[in-house]
Amino acid sequence: MTASSHHPATEPKWRRLPEERPHQIMDAAIEVFGERGLSSARLEDVAKRAGISKGTIYLYFPNKVALFQEMVRQTVGAQIDRVEQELARHTGTAIEQIDAYIRAWWQFNLSPHTQTISRLLISELPRFPELAQFYADEVVVRKVRLLSALIARGVESGAFRPVDPESTARLLGAMMYSYGTWCGMRNLIPALQRFSDDEIREQIRDFFFHAVAPVSTT
Fold it and tell me: Looking at domain 9-62, what is its CATH homologous superfamily?
């Protein structure tokens, strides 16, 4: 075989199809934002990591805030879509559906990309108020609406005591988000080091279902 007839196993980044570039850019953005933070990173840094020209990245994203927003939509937003679809097909009880919700979100919270996004949200939202509003509207509101509907079903069926569904959904969501983030920094939190990820998930699950259980009258 001659050198001219040899074809590389993968195409160079700069020869990929244009429709592949947004995903290519977002993969690079997660790496660059995770390493440098949103405040310090530049679109030029992301373009270089993605193997595209500085001018090309501006054809897709006008600034790094818009890029971060799309990154959240394609990760966290897509996960909300998947969970909504899964629960729509799930014909179990409210307890079974909430159990499925906890398991799905716990696994997602522990993924490397989600861990990076979580750390960025904690550190960068105070510097970017528009991102805080965006995240509240497109992530928090949707997750609370979905979970509170499940909790309301549990209350109506008598499986749960008469708790406020929205407040209870916020508390469960906050607990899962916090512990999911802390599990990604387990080396800094000695108290978590003696538990596996699955054990912590079961602790959260056990705490929640005991908290909402009907009060015994005997």
Answer: Homeodomain-like (1.10.10.60)
pTM of the model: 0.83
Q: How would you label 157-190 residue by residue, b for 16+ Cβ within 10 Å and e otherwise? A: eebbeebebeebbbebbeebbebbbebbebeeee
Residue at token pair 């549990």: 154
Q: Which CATH superfamily is domain 71-212 in?
A: Tetracycline Repressor, domain 2 (1.10.357.10)
Name the token pair of 33: 């934002």
CB contact set of 106 (below 8 Å; sequence gap of 6+): 176, 180, 197, 201, 204
Residue 77 token pair: 């937003």
CB atoms within 10 A of CB 110: 17
Q: Is 52 helix (H, G, I), strand (E, B) or coil?
A: coil
Average pLDDT, the chain: 88
